[in-house]
Design goal:
This protein has a 21-stranded antiparallel β-sheet that branches. The protein is built from one helix and 21 strands. Helix content is 9%, strand content 54%. The protein has a domain of 59 residues. The termini are far apart. With 263 residues, the chain is mainly β.
Length: 263
């Protein structure tokens, strides 16, 4: 004798089949993938869509099990917020990606000890606006403006102890211009010279920490090595001369010993 299923039972079976179909279709659409380190720790967890392109959240781990990176994908392209971490578990940085996979908005990156390393903004994948850089001790390292990924205008640089390291200038295209100065931590001038159209020009002087002149470089109007370059020891004694003409070595190069005798 064959029993016919009741209407109620048929509804339950159809509902169960619908649930199973939805489960398997979704599972096939977003299939989880895993890779592993040799020590058995999970290395990556990510998902693929029906076209086997990255989709949803993807995680990358260190071999110690700590999370390294978290990204979000849509149709194989990175989108939304991404975060990455140091091996000790502390946040290293975060960024946002638009539909074109280019970064935008606020950017922050941290040192391994948790101190802020640098901060600024991105627009269409390029650094823009005010940017600041810091040492691991929290001291400001450099700050200035960015445009299309290049440094522009005036930039100030500092040593780890907070003393002034230097002053730099750039044009709208990121090329060095004008007078540049760099200082030692003791405040003594380390170098001074000028740029034009991104190239050194004129006299460039370099100094020892005791304030004495170390050597002099000369660049002509074509930004090429030129003239007599002189080099001194820390006591101020001339130890070498080099001669250039329009970027080429020329003339007699002289080297002196401690008694100022020519070699």
């Amino acid at each position: 004798m064959i029993l016919k299923p009741t209407r109620r039972l048929m509804k339950k079976l159809l509902f169960l089949l619908a649930i199973l179909h939805l489960f398997f279709s979704c599972n096939g659409q977003y299939k989880e993938q895993k890779t592993f380190f040799e020590n058995g720790q999970v290395k990556e967890i990510y998902y693929l869509d029906e076209n086997r392109q990255l989709t949803g959240e993807a995680k990358i781990y260190f071999d110690n099990g700590k999370l390294s990176t978290v990204n979000k994908y849509k149709s194989g392209k990175k989108i939304g917020e991404s975060k990455w971490y140091w091996k000790n578990g502390k946040l290293r940085g975060s960024a946002s990606f638009g539909e074109n996979e280019k970064m935008y908005g606020e950017w922050k990156e941290y040192h391994e000890n948790g101190q802020l390393g640098n901060s600024g903004s991105y627009e269409n994948g390029e650094k823009t606006g005010a940017w600041k850089y810091y040492f691991e001790n929290g001291q400001l390292s450099a700050f200035g403006a960015m445009k299309n990924g290049n440094r522009i205008d005036q930039w100030k640089l500092y040593h780890r102890d907070g003393t002034t390291r230097g002053l730099e200038r750039y044009d709208e295209n990121g090329r060095p211009i004008g007078e540049w100065k760099e200082y030692y931590e003791n405040g003594q001038l380390e170098s001074i010279g000028s740029y034009e159209d991104g190239m050194k020009i004129g006299d460039w002087n370099y100094y020892y920490q005791n304030g004495r002149l170390e050597h002099v470089e000369i660049y002509n109007q074509y930004k090429r090595y030129n003239g007599e370059w002189k080099f001194y020891n820390e006591q101020g004694t001339l130890i070498k001369t080099e001669i250039y003409s329009d970027g080429k070595e020329t003339g007699d190069w002289k080297f002196y010993d401690e008694k100022r005798q020519f070699n």
